[in-house]
Amino acid sequence: MVNITENATEECTINHNIHQTLSPVVYIFVFIIGLPANCLSLYYGYLQIKAKNELGIYLCNLTVADLLYIFSLPFWLQYVLQHDNWTYDELLCKICGILLYENIYISVGFLCCISIDRYLAVVHPFQFQQFRTMKAAVIVSIIIWTKEIMTCCFVFRHREISTDADSHVVCFEHYPIKEWEHNVNYYRFSAGFLFPFFLLAFSYCGILRVVHKSHGTQKKKKIQIKRLVSSTVLIFLVCFGPYHILLVIRSLLENNCSFAEKIFNIYHVSLLLTTFNCVADPVLYCFSSESIYQNFAKMRDSCLTYLGCPRTEMKESYPLNAPETQQATARATTRVITNIT
């Protein structure tokens, strides 16, 4: 039984219908698609670690963050289907909230690690080797998790359950937002979105510049790399941009129930967009790999053969890990372009 000792600042009467219509569809979709995709992503990261590739450590941490949030989705699904009425205790509400936020910001942190690792590998292949080791990746991973856990402990020392105008127990919903949330939202926007975005954009612009100048890389391969890099930045903006912009808007303008009611739907749509990151990550960082594609093609052909169906013809592929030039520098640059996938 939930013990309520603190009510919301105001009892805002807000239409929560979006939680009974759109939210369940998104949660179910992400759970069904994201769980197996991230399990495969975790296995791929393990193979990278086994091959002594520090990129695998970042990928595994990114996948673990996604999986932890995916495991909390059944609780959020039950919450929204019960018309935003939290039936568990406050501790579980805080745990689910922590998993939601750690998915956003730990994912952002490891996306930046992957982009920086690729930037150093492609743009500075003979320098900064000490930052591209397994030990360095482990240390950076520990720092990111520690920093985010400490941030969550600071933020979630406040009560996170309250009652609304319909006497429902709401979890992680304050309308209008409380005073202490303003500075937290500004921090999330600047340190959790704006700075990582500039870091991501800088890294990938450097990669694209080197790939464009590389004479040892096929034209179609360059197009493939450019599309992958552009997709990464685009998905980062789509998944995390609207949510963080609305955080700032709420902090600046939301001081009464009237504004809270107007922004409720669009704010929660932006929050749902962050959930799709759990599906986008494994697609971008694993299934874009040529080796993974080849493995799935073999599995597909084996299944077709077993079912007595004709095998499909393999399309021409352009792997991202084949050196194609005789000059030493060009050869090294082409080789490290492997890190794009």
Automatic annotation (TrEMBL):
It comes from the Eukaryota. The chain crosses the membrane at residues 25-46, 58-77, 97-116, 136-157, 186-207, 228-249. This is Ovarian cancer G-protein coupled receptor 1. GO terms for cellular component: plasma membrane. Residues 37-285 form the G-protein coupled receptors family 1 profile domain. Pfam families: 7tm_1. The lineage of its organism: Eukaryota, Metazoa, Chordata, Craniata, Vertebrata. It is a multi-pass membrane protein. It is found in: Cell membrane. GO terms for molecular function: G protein-coupled receptor activity. Belongs to the G-protein coupled receptor 1 family. InterPro entries: GPCR_Rhodpsn, GPCR_Rhodpsn_7TM, OGR1_rcpt. Keywords: Cell membrane, Disulfide bond, G-protein coupled receptor, Glycoprotein, Membrane, Receptor, Transducer, Transmembrane, Transmembrane helix. It comes from Grus japonensis (Japanese crane). Its main location: membrane.
